[in-house]
Amino acid sequence: MAAGPSIDALGQFRLATSLGPIGAAVNFTNANLMMVLTAALVLALFGYGMRARAIIPGRTQAAAEMGYEFVARLCQDIIGDGWKPFFPFVFTLFFFILFGNLVGLFPYFFAFTSHIAVTAALAVIVFGLSIIVGLVKHKLHFFTYFMPAGAPKLLAPVLVPIEILTFLSRPVSLSIRLFANIVAGHVLWEVFAGFMLIVAAALGVIGIAAGVIPLAINVVLVGFELLVAGLQAYVFAVLTCLYLHDAVHLH
Amino acid sequence: MIPFLRRLASWSLAAWLALAPAMALAQEESGGMPQFQFSNELTTSQVVWMVLIFLVLYLLLARWALPQVSSVLEERARRIAADLDAAKAAKAEADAAVAELTAATRNARAEAQAEIAAASRSAREAAAGQTAALNERLEAELREAETRIDAARAAAMGALREVANETARAMIERLTGHTPAPETLAAALDHALSTAKG
To answer: Whole-angstrom Cα distance, residue A53 to residue B76?
Structure first.
C-alpha cells in the first residue's frame, strides 16, 4: 500500500510508559494511568458524591446509591447467605471494569480491559479468592465439589475430570470474554474509521460522500460499545458472584 | 437475558474472527497484537501496578466510601420505618376516637329515644286519666239529672191525680147528682192512671 492513510487497528493497544521519566523508571504504563483515572472516578462518585449524606438525595447521590444497591442486590441474589463480606470486592470489581470500559471508549484514551494480561489477572484474583474461600469454609470437604451429588459412583472417573476441567476453564473464559469483547469493539471502530479515510483519500469527492457510510456505522457502534461496556462489566460481576456462591455453598 | 448475552458474546467473537485477516495484515507490519507481546516488560508491569491500584481502590471503597453509602441508606430506612410507625400509631388513635364518637352518638340517641317514649307514655296516661275523670263527672251529672227528672215526674204525676180526682168528682156530681164514694173514685183513678201510664 502506498503512503497515505492506512488501517492500524492494533496501534491503539500498544503500551507505553506514562508520566514522563518517573513513569518510565517504574514502568508505569498508559494503561495504569487510565486505571488511576478510573479509580479516581469511582471514588469521586461514591466518596465525593455521597458527601451531602442527604435523606432526600440529589442527582449524584442518587446515582451512587443506585450503584450501591444494584451491586448489593446482585450479591444478595446470587451469592445468597453470607454475601456481606464479598460485597466490597464485587463492588470494586464491577465498577473498576465498568468505568475502565467507559473511559476506554473516549478517543485517545486507553482501554485497559482490552489487555488479556489485565483481564486474566482480574480473573485469577476471582478464581483464587473462590478457591481460598471454599477451602477455608469447607476444608477438604471442598473437593466434593468435583463430584456432583447424587451421581452414581461408577461414573466418578468420568465426571470428576470433567468437573475439574470445567472448574479450571472458569478464569480462562472469564478473562477471554471481557478481553475479546473490548478488543472487538475497538478494532471495529478503528477499521471503519481507517476505511473512511482511505475511501475519502482515494476517490475524491465521491469518496468523501461515500465516507459517510463508515462514519454512520461508527456512530451506531458508539451505542453498541456503550452496551458492551456495561454488559461485560455486569457479566464479569455476575460470574464472580456465581463462583463465590459455589465456594460458599458448594452448589 | 442470558440467551441475549450469549448471542452478543458470540456476535462480538464472530466480528473479531472476521477481522482476524485485517489484523493479521496489521500484525505483520507492527509485530503482532500488543496484548500478546509478553516479552514486553510493560505487559507484566501494568499488571503489577493494576494489583496495587485495585487494592488501594478496594480499601478506600470498603473502609471509606461504602460505609458512608450504607449508613445513609440505613438512616433513611430507619427514618421511613419510624415515620411509618408514627403514622400507624396516629391512625390507631384516630380509629379509637372515631369508635368512641360512634358509641357516644349511639348512647345519646338511645337515651333520647327512651326519654321520648317515657314522655309520650306519661302524656298518654295523663290524657286517659283526664278522660276517665271527665266521663265519671258527666255520668254523675247524668244520674243526678235523671233523678231530678224522676222526682219532677213523680211530682207531676201526684198533681195530675189530684186534678183528675177533683175533675172526676165534679163531673160525676154534675152528671149524676150525688157524690161518689172516695174509695171507688180512687180505685177507678188508679186503674185509669195505671193503664194510661202503661
So the answer is: 10
